[in-house]
Amino acid sequence: MASAQSRAARLRSAAFTYANLAPFIFFALFPFYFMFVTSFKSNAELYNLKAVPFWIQSGVIADHYTFLFRKTDFLVWVRNSLLISVVATGVSIVLSILAGYSLARLRFRGAGSFGTAVFITYLVPPTLLFLPLSQVVSWLGLSDSIVALMVTYPTFLVPFCTWLLMGYFRTVPREVEECALVDGATRMQTLVRIVLPMAVPGIICALLFSFTLCWNEFTYALTFISQSANKTAVVGVTADLIRGDIYYWGSLMAGAVLASVPVVIVYVLFLDYYVSGLTAGAVKG
Amino acid sequence: MAVGPQVLEAAGPARAGRLNRLREWWEREEVFGYGLILPALALLVALVAFPFGMAIYFSLSDYWVGSPGGFVGLANYREILGNEMFRQTVQNSFVFTGVALSLKIVLGVWLAVLLARPLRFKRLIRGAVLLPFVIPTALSTLGWWWMFDSLYSVVNWTAIRLGLMTPPGPNWLGQPTNAMIAVIVVNVWRGLPFFAITTLAGLIAVPREYYEAAEVDGAGARQRFWLITLPLLKPVLAVVILFSTIFTFSDFNIVYVLTRGGPMNTTHLFATLAYQVGLNGGNLGQGAAIALFIFPLLGAVVFFQLRYIRKD
Asked: pLDDT for B157-166, tens place per residue?
């Protein structure tokens, strides 16, 4: 008999929690719901001030989506985004594994200062450097090419991933490494065969964040690319779908929804890694 | 040239020995350590440190897109500081950062406290709350742009139906104060999950015994929050706040998509103004100088972060 009173108290406390959480959840999700609904509405309904905006009354239509595929470079933008994200993520992960392991485990003069330097670059916002970088990109002959983004994205991915991975490498027990070295493995073999398998969760985390950061990046992609065929999905939708007339909201929302899909898929599949990476990146940093 | 034949001669039997020596050298801890960090370091020097130096040089020169000009000293800074648009931007940046950050701190801690309570569908709720942080900001801001449309705003539609506004309701993006509110709302919407989830991690780490002991001593929920939760959260909160300060202050995406800095420059931040002056206007020197105004705050944040880490 835990007594009816304590059960009532528990119920009241739960009701309080959910009632207070509800506005936050509504605030977080409503914009997405509204974008989704808008993308399936006919223009007649979208621009009818008398219609209720929250749902679709006069039929679900896919016209805005077919418009994207037939009349715009949407698929090219998605392909560009995928290429850039995969290459930039791949390069950054390799560099970060090497640097992260070195800084977390090896003793050499200046290791501490290098660690600090990586941390400082991690805090440098891209908006501080986009003007000079646009010049560097043009000197390298990469203006208006997706290679420009593959080269520049690692500048913010490497500090982040290195920092994240350092935390994971520190959790690998030193004895395991020392055993391998004593057994005659080279340092590189020890890193690849012993340490890396033990840091797999960290590597997945780093991959995940890198991919999302690349896919979502806006400032550099907007600044370094001007030709429509070389744009990324995010910039293409934001910059190229707005036409002269005002009746573009349907296709604009359709583009925003579709261009978010890859990130949402990755997110749903790896939610727990996401949360742990977010907290590790910030809190341990 | 004279070295050529000697090298060829030595290549025979000595080769294995040299290779071994090279291998031994590579196995030395400090050599291996430097070797592994070299690629990342080269990248960061070439594409972060060097551009940073360039930014400083640009800001001190008369540099336009396509025509590198000469050194002009502090002329760019002098011109910027005398510019009404720039002064407006400074004011906007502090209002924007101050208000958005305060809201994120208060709402974020409150949301974290709620999320730390026993919940059904815990994973689902956390997943939903974190979503605005994951979706590309530029794209979700397009959704907000539509929600703040001057004619079809769903916010106004609802408020008018509920009798909270007189038709047609506020013009969100066309009037200075409203536009600033809109930009702040979107920034809070997007940054809140980061605050809440990281604070939640800090909350979960607080040992339960503390609360139990406090409860035994007769402390109410409010006292427990102010006397136990908040002090123990301080380290986590400090880091999150410092992070958020720099990334709110240097925000670009939301303002660029939602208002382009308008109306009448009342929502411009340093980054969007630098973009407008440096790229749209082609005046890279002044653009770089404007962007560099983000630096003092970055320096302060780095200073506090490093002090905090050393203490840790």
From this structure: 999 999 888 8
Residues A133 and A214 in one domain: yes
Q: Return the DSSP state at A228.
A: G
Q: Measuring CA to CA, which residue among B180, B147, B204 is closest to residue B267? A: B180
How many residue pairs from chains A and B have C-beta atoms closer than 8 A?
279
CA closest to A104 among chain B residues = B33
Alpha carbons B25 and B45: distance in angstroms, whole number:
26
Which residues contact residue A151 at a Cβ distance below 8 angstroms, ignoring those fewer than 6 apart? A137, A140, A142, B47
CB contact under 8 A, A234 and B138: yes
ipTM of the complex: 0.92
Q: Which residue of B has its CA nearest to A277?
A: B198
Delimit the domains of chain B by residue range: 16-59, 80-311
Q: Select B80-311's CATH number: 1.10.15.40, 1.10.3720.10, 3.40.50.300, 1.20.120.340.
A: 1.10.3720.10
B84-133 confidence digits (pLDDT tens): 999 999 999 999 999 999 999 999 999 999 999 888 888 899 999 999 99
Q: Where do we find the tokens 């959260």?
A: B233
CB A64 within 8 A of CB B154: no
Checking if the pLDDT of A3 tops 70, the result is no
- Residue A108 to residue B29, Cβ atoms within 8 A: yes
- Interchain contact, A99 vs B39, CB within 8 Å: yes
Contact B139 A237 (CB under 8 A): yes
Domain of residue A114: give its range: 65-284
In this structure, which amino acid lies at residue A177?
Answer: E
Do residues A204 and A133 share a domain? Answer: yes
State how far residue A110 is from chain B, nearest Cα, in angstroms.
Answer: 9
